[in-house]
Every structure is written in structure tokens, then in C-alpha cells.
Automatic annotation (TrEMBL):
Amino acids binding S-adenosyl-L-methionine: 85, 90, 136-137, 150
Gene name, Swiss-Prot/TrEMBL: rsmG
Known catalytic reactions: guanosine(527) in 16S rRNA + S-adenosyl-L-methionine = N(7)-methylguanosine(527) in 16S rRNA + S-adenosyl-L-homocysteine
Molecular function terms from GO: methyltransferase activity
Biological process, per Gene Ontology: methylation
UniProt enzyme class: transferase
Gene source species: Roseateles subflavus
E.C. number(s) listed in UniProt: 2.1.1.170
Pfam families reported in the protein's UniProt record: GidB
Signal sequence extent: none
Subcellular location: Cytoplasm
Purpose: Specifically methylates the N7 position of guanine in position 527 of 16S rRNA.
Protein name: Ribosomal RNA small subunit methyltransferase G
Keyword list, A-Z: Cytoplasm, Methyltransferase, rRNA processing, S-adenosyl-L-methionine, Transferase
Length: 217
């Protein structure tokens, strides 16, 4: 299945999510998918190999974050986002393509995966995208406005490892599958889970939710 065969399904999924993406952005997303397929042969970025499945399980699944992220960014544009345990760049690369004014750092402890992100940034000319090779707890960097993750770790580990990188008043946005009741219960009392948003992923028959967290004032 070629990139052109996936263009219409991707456009339709984006429209279903309420996202008005340009043809250039849609093509960038498909070019990114092509790079995953190319590098996957050497770097094992994902266990999913079928292009149609990759489209839904990776691109469209990551796109489901964008409407919520845009609502948050509307009040204060020009922010910085860190995607933790980004792996092959999900959702960080998708965010960088959809939000070109947002500075996105994809952090991963595996050097090859950070190198892949850097390659994606170069080939797709995404000046707002950075691949960072580091264990997140050892990272020396200015704090971020938003920290995201997708299947990175438990909510407790996610927030504990990244708390030092969160600006005052900033938020975590964690993408999860089923409602993680046990993980929510394990969070410390000084964290406020102020919204749990159900995500509908076009073409995916599985539960998804987005956990919004901030520190209590």
C-alpha cells in the first residue's frame, strides 16, 4: 500500500477528529510514517508492520490528542512541549507537524530512537522538532509548559520522573488506554487530576483516554 493510498483515509480521520490539516501537513504525516517503515528494518521502532494498521494505531491514535492540546494552547500560544519515552516519536512528531509554532522535544533513553527523531526533523524540515537522547530524570533543560507521554510508564512514574521539568502552572497530558483507576489512586496527594477525557480514535476499536494532571497550588 502506497502513501497515496493512505492520504484519503488519513484526511478523513483528521476531519472526523475536527482537525483542519493542510495537504502539506497530511503529506508530512505520511512521509513520517514512511520513515518509520524504512528505519523499522534496522531500529525496530514498532512491532506494527502493516501500513494500514500503522496509520490507525500510530498516526490517528496520536492525532486524537491534538484537539485537546489545541484547546489548552489557545490561551497561551508559543509554548514548549516535552514528549517522554517518545520512542519513534509518538505522539511528539505528530504534534510537531500539526502545531508548527509549538517547540517539541522528544526524549528517549535509547540513542537510536533519538537519532531517528533528529532524522525526521531534518528530512521533513521541522525546525520545531528535537530528538533528545537522555534518561528523563538526568536531563538538564529549561522547564516545559506541557509534558506528554503515550504508553510510557505508570502515571506515578511518569509524573515523578518529569516533575522537575514542569513549569509552575504547567500540565501533564498522559495518553492511556482504559481508564487507569489503580494508577490514578497511586498518585500523591499534591497532584490534581483535573480532567479525564475519553478519546475517540477513528478506525480503532479500543478504549483511549487522556489524563490531565497538574500540581496543586
Amino acid at each position: 500500500m502506497s502513501s497515496s493510498d493512505l492520504f484519503a483515509p488519513l484526511r478523513d480521520a483528521a476531519q472526523t477528529l475536527g482537525l483542519d490539516l493542510s495537504d502539506v501537513q497530511l503529506q508530512q504525516l505520511l512521509d513520517y510514517l514512511g520513515l518509520i517503515q524504512k528505519w523499522n528494518k534496522v531500529y525496530n521502532l514498532t512491532a506494527v508492520r502493516d501500513p494500514q494498521a500503522m496509520l490507525v494505531q500510530h498516526l490517528v491514535d496520536s492525532l486524537s490528542l491534538i484537539p485537546a492540546l489545541r484547546r489548552h494552547l489557545a490561551a497561551t500560544p508559543g509554548q514548549r512541549l516535552m514528549d517522554v519515552g517518545s520512542g519513534g516519536g509518538l505522539p511528539g512528531v505528530v504534534v510537531a507537524i500539526c502545531e508548527p509554532t509549538l517547540d517539541v522535544s522528544c526524549v528517549d533513553a535509547v540513542a537510536k530512537k533519538a537519532s531517528f527523531i533528529q532524522q525526521v526533523a531534518a528530512e521533513l524540515r521541522l525546525g520545531n522538532l528535537h530528538g533528545v537522547h537522555s534518561r528523563v530524570e538526568e536531563l538538564q533543560v529549561a522547564p516545559f509548559d506541557v509534558i506528554t507521554s503515550r504508553a510510557f510508564a505508570s502515571l506515578l512514574d511518569f509524573t515523578t520522573l518529569t516533575r522537575q521539568h514542569l513549569k509552575p502552572g504547567a500540565i501533564w497530558m498522559a495518553m492511556k488506554g482504559q481508564h487507569p483507576q489503580d494508577e490514578l489512586a497511586a498518585l500523591p496527594a499534591d497532584l490534581d487530576v483535573f480532567h479525564v477525557e475519553q478519546l475517540q480514535v477513528p478506525g480503532l476499536d479500543a478504549q483511549r483516554c487522556l489524563i490531565w494532571i497538574k500540581t496543586r497550588a
